[in-house]
Write a structure and sequence with these properties.
This protein has 14 helices and 13 strands. By secondary structure, it is an alpha/beta fold. The strands form 2 sheets. A 7-stranded parallel sheet has the order 3-2-1-4-5-6-7, with helices on both faces. A 6-stranded parallel sheet has the order 10-9-8-11-12-13, sandwiched between helices.
Length: 411
């Protein structure tokens, strides 16, 4: 245990479901709770790539002196009931709860149990922007790419729990709510404290990176979430790679293997499956002098993580013609907002355009080099994740916490 982290205990309890959420919990702890160990609960998904990244991030959290509790939260139809039951004691004793995804059914269900007076929401990517806006407007919590669609049966079963979670995430009385974010906030909910995530822990812990010639590309799951047509996406990737001399494509953890195989065959790009969040991979290096992206979280986070280096981040807008017929009516405006509010990035209006050649900022010094090795890695698939039982639907007749846990198991 790191001597600077103190004794980990139940007073601050964090819940994460993705590597990025875990990274941002570490950033929050570095900025706001130095010397205090957390109890960090990983609500593990079944996706092997995500599980592999979460295991690596859990190792880093332990190195910082935090306790990590790994929960097979989706290991079968009974897993949600077992997970919620096993965490009830910790939730009732916690004075502060840190969470990474307020849209998560799991997290919403756990919020109905906790008595914590302090709630902290750390970034879960660009979804945080939507959460803040919905909270400020008093709307029900719905992920941006699903907004405008009709609620399904499981949404209706879970609606009372979701409403309760939204009330608990609204400050009032002795309940305090903080949002720790690197995302721009157009609306700030009344009474909510907003603090900036500058990726200070990442810069102190890793880098500075070795910068190579050429460009790297960052993948996105917009195809997998049904927002962007796969053929249009592949053509945009091909055009960007050709225009900027990109050779590597850092896959998003949710991108499908079939899509990635097609990208490799038709573009010639080397597909890299990172074993850590891209902010850490880029900071460790080596990394291209230009990083190309579509609208996503990294257009906000990479300039912060790479502050003081000569790396440029360039973002390509999503053309409306690329959207699928099933895309939410909100999709184009949301994606444009992600790009338009990004700072310190070069904006590309089309897939084949070239970023302006304005001078890059001077390179700065970073923290100590990472002892675990070079930044590019093809992290091993987690065998346990590959073998995990699929989530199954709960009974529609269930009510209360049991019915809510069934809805969690269903997705």
């Amino acid at each position: 245990m790191s001597p600077r982290a103190g004794n980990a205990g139940p007073h601050t309890l964090a819940f994460v479901e993705s590597p990025v959420q875990l990274l941002n919990v570490l950033e929050w702890a570095h900025a706001h709770a130095p010397g205090v160990g957390l109890t960090l609960v990983v609500l593990s998904p079944v996706d092997p790539m995500t599980r592999g990244q979460l295991r690596r991030m859990s190792d880093l959290a332990r190195d910082e002196g935090h306790q990590v509790r790994w929960e097979e939260a989706r290991g079968g139809p009974l897993a949600p009931f077992q997970t919620v039951g096993g965490l009830s004691g910790l939730l009732r004793r916690a004075r502060r709860v840190v969470l990474g995804d307020p849209f998560s059914r799991y997290v919403q269900l756990l919020l109905t149990i906790t008595r914590a007076r302090d709630l902290v929401v750390v970034d879960d990517g660009t979804a945080t922007m939507e959460f803040v806006g919905q909270l400020a407007r008093g709307e029900r919590l719905v992920r941006w790419h699903r907004k405008g669609g009709r609620p399904g049966p499981r949404d209706l079963i879970f609606a009372p729990v979701s409403s309760s979670a939204r009330r608990r995430l609204t400050p009032g009385g002795k309940r305090r709510v903080e949002i720790f974010s690197s995302m721009p906030m157009r609306e700030t909910p009344e009474g909510v404290t907003v603090s900036a995530n500058a990726f200070a822990w990442t810069r102190a812990r890793f880098g500075p990176p070795r910068i190579t010639k050429g460009a790297d590309m960052v993948g996105t799951s917009l195809v997998e979430t049904g927002v962007v047509d796969d053929d249009h996406y592949l053509e945009a990737v091909r055009a960007l790679a050709a225009a900027h001399g990109a050779t590597r494509y850092f896959a998003h953890r949710r991108e499908s293997p079939d899509k990635l195989r097609r990208l490799a065959a038709e573009t010639g790009l080397e597909i890299v499956r990172p074993e850590l969040p891209l902010e850490l991979i880029a900071r460790r290096g080596p990394v291209g002098s230009t990083i190309l992206s579509f609208p996503s979280t990294v257009v906000h986070t990479l300039p912060l993580a790479l502050s003081g280096t000569e790396v440029r981040v360039a973002v390509c807008d999503i053309d409306p013609s690329w959207l699928t017929q099933h895309a939410s009516p909100r999709a184009q405006g949301f994606l444009s907002g992600v790009t338009g509010t990004a700072r310190d990035v070069h904006r590309l209006s089309t897939a084949g355009s070239t970023p302006p050649a304005d001078p890059a900022p001077p390179a700065g010094s970073g923290g100590p080099a990472d002892p675990t090795g070079p930044g590019r890695s093809t992290g091993p698939a987690d065998a346990a994740g590959a073998a995990g039982s699929p989530r199954s639907a709960g009974s529609a007749s269930m009510a209360g916490p049991a019915g809510a846990a069934g809805a969690v198991a269903a997705g």
